[in-house]
Amino acid sequence: MKKIVVATIMTMMAGSVSAQLSSSDSAQSLDKVTVTAFEQNRRLVEIPASIALINKTQLQRFAPFNVLQAFNSLPGVRMEERSPGSYRMNIRGSSLRSPFGVRNVKIYYNDLPYTTPGGDSYFNQLGFYNFNTVEIIKGPGSSLYGAGTGGVMLIRSDDKIVGNSVTLSAAVGSYGTKNFHLQAKLASGNTQQTIDYQSQYSDGYRDHTAMNRDVLSWQLKQTGEKGQFNAQFLYSNLYYQTPGGLNKREFDSASKMARPNAGFIPGAETAKAAIYQKTFYSGMSYTYKFSESFQQTTAMYGAYTQLNNPGIFAYSRAIEPHFGGRTVFQFKQKGFSAHLGAEVQQGYSNAKAYLNNAGNPTTLQTDDDIVNRTGFVFAQATVDLSEGLSITAGASLNQLKLSVTRLSTNPITIKSRKYSNEFAPRIALIQKFGSNSIYASVSKGFSPPTSSEVLPSSGVISTDLEAEEGLNFELGTKGTYLQDRLYVDASVFYYKLKNAIVVRRDTQGRDYFVNAGATNQKGFELYSSYELYRNASKTSVLKVWTTYQYYHFKYKDFVKGSVDYSGKFLPSVPKHNLLIGLDGNMKNGLYGNLTYQYIDTIPVNDANNEKAAATHLVSLRAGLRKNLGKSLRIDFYVAGENLTDSKYCLGFDLNANGGRYYNTAPGRMLVVGVEIRIKS
């Protein structure tokens, strides 16, 4: 029945819309778009790597409450939300390492390191309007970006609109959701400033899932004859309730309930389980051009995060100040480019755990100081060998040093670990044929345990964890066909991971981590789009697009106690994931975006004896986006997500004690919103 509904809606839309998406997101522009991944600054089809892109058009296909839908429309990317504000992210992999938060994905925000020295990334501190473009490198990016086997994310918030403008956005939706955004751009000579404030609130779609987030940011860009100076500041204040996982019986019968009391273990509402998180982040960068061929960029940042978390088993408090920098020398001339640089980060954290009494800390359990220092040097060169054929070779040398001092023991306990001299190379070949290309690459990744894994909620100091090491082989093609109407980006890969870090739960349900031997991860990914119609001026276009991924991810060698999981599928990874989209934008400003997604069954434990059911999702956004004169632009829209009201999960507590794997996702959600921009 759901498939029939989807097909009917898409057929009706195709018949009624004679135009679509602006040419900025057409197949032709994808062929010409320039990306910064691997410091190449080349067209997408000229980069010998699998890179997923999110731009403003992709973000505006969905309701502006979070970026989850846009990320999940990309092949190879899975973003999870166990409750509003609680995000997890994996790229070509599972969520084995992430019971919460974003780990093993190196993130840069406006060219500054955003991932902490301890390896965690507070992705949820960024609001929807902090994202304008995102480049996602799939597979190990250690050759240029340091530790991480899961991939790299390059986020930019600047929408490149110059001059003076004011933008006001507001939206309301189901579950008491409200969103407000105000942005001011101020230009004077060669200086551009952007001040941005956004606020989001939700009552929650499930018991104990209220959320509130406020983000204030400022950016400065100043361009001179020889260089460019950038500065930024961001403050984020986030609160959200954590409802906890349900077992299969609870999920089937009362999926909107929070985790209930179970004997002496309190439920989520009794414990008042929640996250209170504040982050200050500031940085600057300067690019100096010595000549047309030679330039150098230096960036520095500082950050401070305060995190309070009353949970089911404990009340944790943490403060995490950290700072760091990155410098890159770049030389380019015809047929050759080279990059040489270094990055270093230092963090000093303190984490305390107390007994939790209805959301209040009581007896101190542990008090730990954590010191992290991570750094690497890197080099990369690209050489054009012949007409259309080029080779890129790069490598980094990484080091991580950490120590944990437990102040709550007598005598004080000190544990330390040094992961040093990890060499991470990458080599890639690409052959270009006009607007098409074929590429092949081999890359190695290195990923030591994060602070959250060395010091998990169980309180065990796990400095004996080994670093993950991954080796990735990839073959792909991308380009345009049929007079630039058809765009195709396809790749196959084989990823071998050693010492995979996976989460475990003790008898009380608290997290701890172990190395799980080796995994074999084989996959196929496809993105394609076809313009069914476009007029001569390209102001009207009708486009259909699809993404598909097939993953065959298994443990190669993993024995836990007397149980052998070798040959089992990795939890949290669907074998098949398919999206079909239809986008329409008329010359008069009317537009519509329809998306259908199929997610295959998902194993939720290592034994593979329990799986989440397959899911069908439908979303739609339609509206009027129009310029009224030279200075005023308005976008009025209605949107709906999960229109078929499917009962499913956007994230699982893998291998959870008592079978509490399930975190219910929102049901049908309807949204009405408006955006007004005034330019002078």
Report what the structure shows.
By secondary structure, the chain is mainly beta. It has a single domain, classed as Maltoporin, Chain A (Beta Barrel). The protein is 7% helix and 58% strand. The protein has a 22-stranded antiparallel β-barrel. The longest helix is centred in the first third of the chain and has 15 residues, at 2-16. The radius of gyration is 24 Å and the shape is globular. The N and C termini lie far apart (51 Å). Residues 1-28 have low confidence and may be disordered.
Count of helical segments?
Answer: 8
Please give the radius of gyration in angstroms: 24 Å
Number of domains: 1
* Overall SS class: mainly beta
Helix content class = under 10%
Beta-strand content estimate? over 45%
Mean pLDDT: 89
CATH class: Mainly Beta
CATH topology: Maltoporin, Chain A
- Biggest sheet, in brief? 22 strands, antiparallel, barrel
- Give the low-pLDDT segments: 1-28
> Looking at the structure, what is the overall shape?
globular
Short description:
With 680 residues, this protein is mainly beta. It is 7% helix and 58% strand. The radius of gyration is 24 Å and the shape is globular.
SSE layout and pairing:
Blueprint lengths: L1 H15 L10 H6 L1 E2 L6 E2 L7 E4 L1 H4 L8 H4 L5 E7 L2 E6 L10 E2 L2 E4 L2 E2 L6 E2 L11 E5 L4 H4 L6 E5 L8 E9 L3 E12 L2 E12 L8 E13 L3 E15 L6 H6 L14 H4 L2 E16 L4 E17 L4 E19 L2 E22 L2 E27 L2 E18 L6 E21 L2 E12 L3 H4 L13 E14 L4 E13 L2 E5 L5 E5 L2 E17 L6 E17 L1 E2 L2 E2 L11 E10 L4 E10 L2 E2 L7 E2 L2 E14 L3 E10 L7 E4 L9 E3 L4 E11 L1
Parallel strand pairs: 7-11
Antiparallel strand pairs: 1-2, 3-10, 4-5, 6-9, 7-8, 10-11, 12-13, 12-41, 13-14, 14-15, 15-16, 16-17, 17-18, 18-19, 19-20, 20-21, 21-22, 22-23, 23-24, 24-25, 25-26, 26-29, 27-28, 29-30, 30-33, 31-32, 33-34, 34-37, 35-36, 37-38, 38-41, 39-40
